[in-house]
Amino acid sequence: MASQSAxxxxxxxxxxxxxxxxxxxxxxxxxxxxxxxxxISEFAxxxxxxxxxxxxxxxxxxxxxxxxxxxxxxxxxxxxxxxxKKQVVLEAGKKYQNGIRIFEGLAASGLRSVRFGLEIPxxxxxxxxxxxxxxxxxxxxxxxxxxxSHIMMAKHGDAAMGMYESKAEENLFDxxxxxxxxxxxxxxxxxxxxxxxxxxxCITCTDAAVLCGNALEKCSxxxxxVSLRSKFCHEMAVRIILQxxxxxxxxxxxxxxxxxxxSVDFYFRVFVQVFTSQKQVKHSCTKKAxxxxxxxxxxxxxxxxxxxxxxxxxxxxKFIPGNGAPVxxxxxxxxxxxxxxxPIWTDPLHDHxxxxxxxxxxxxxxxxxxxxxxxxxxxxxxLEELPDVPLYYVLDAVCSVIHCQPPNMMLMRSALLNxxxxxSMSHAAKNSYKTNAPSQIIWDIMRTWIKDHPVSEKxxxxxxVAKAILEKAPKHQISFKxxxxxxxxxxxxxLLRWQANPxxxxxxxxxxxxxxxxxxxxxxxxxxxxxxxxxxDSNSQDRNHSAAEPETQEHGEKE
Length: 559
Prior knowledge:
Distance between the termini: 54 Å
Shape: globular
Number of strands: 17
Strand content: 15-25%
Structural class: alpha/beta
């Protein structure tokens, strides 16, 4: 065990934990942990009070006397259970036999799991796993420190193996939380098999550079999709992660339903449920698409991988490949070529009803979460997002293409609404807008705008993107008259949506090194004079070798 001098006590939420210097800790991630606690709390309450809200496992159906998912008796039995349990007031820190089982695969000091035990009501068991023996010792220490031995246990081992060992139906987890340094891809195969029907996965990805197009070959190898370095790259990254998780689930006749999917600061965090249904898995191919983006003006189009065509019989479909490329060889607006990325997830990123419940829970949380304002602000922006419109434009980027003074965002939103299209912000980027308007409308708005805000002739060189776009006449009538729905509620209420830099150098920290028991002082003492010792040992070996030579020669001559 490390000496006391190498240990730091960290207080976060209701938890007080001891951290060795070797264990990774980033205080900026408190937002991540607060958000996760709020979401799992909502999930746990629904699990206990309303089990019919989720697809229960075959074992549970058998226990309740129901052999089929659509067995009429299941409704009656579940209704009785609900009626009884709705009277229960759940408490954090208390063990519930019918509560949720949580597995944290990469627990480090166990801070996250300790907070789960102290702040999430409706818990049966929490398993905090880590591959570092020293970290596991600190997890045990922190369990005792916070009096959580009745619902929390430490586990030493590989996270993936720990999940594979729980594949049996009676051992499945209700919640799996993965917060790795970098990509979680090596754990996904085990993860999608280790949760029950309707179980919750909470997954973080911190390899933003890879997912945002800085290394498309690495993204393809890791996530099975090509990323594009574009203005919409942060939402594209989230959608690449979702399609990857869904693809892993599909191999086991399972599919995902995203509850909340976010791009936050320097990482991505997704919360998805996993369900089992061979029939529904077939529709997964219709939820993914390729992305075509013009390298000149940035206009983009989506190409679905497949289509579901209704056939004879109820809920029967024939699946056919998507139609040909949605774009020509050259962009109709600027004449440049397109590049292709994906596939990405194109179904909704969020469950709006679930988000509303989480917001209400955060506002009334028993012990207010430190990052409450930002959680509510960001979730309100996510709630406002158009669910059926993947990706977004950034107003400043659009204006930079034609080198014009940018209009006020409210004017841009009004122009789109006045033209009969939908528009919203994206939580993934400031000054962004998602719209179902075609790119032709976007450029017609800009062509109309520059009539009163002309572009310098110096910017309109022959062959430039700006000249190619602006020399075309608008095809649609555009009005910048203020629209009553142009200002979103989150903006009008002044909600906190994006975090100000909380600390100097507050981004991703260096990866924690796997440690052995013993603190830094002990390690330094052990390594003191290492080079001198190595030299002495080397000289000693040389002397021994020289002394042994005659003996070896004699032995050789005798043989």
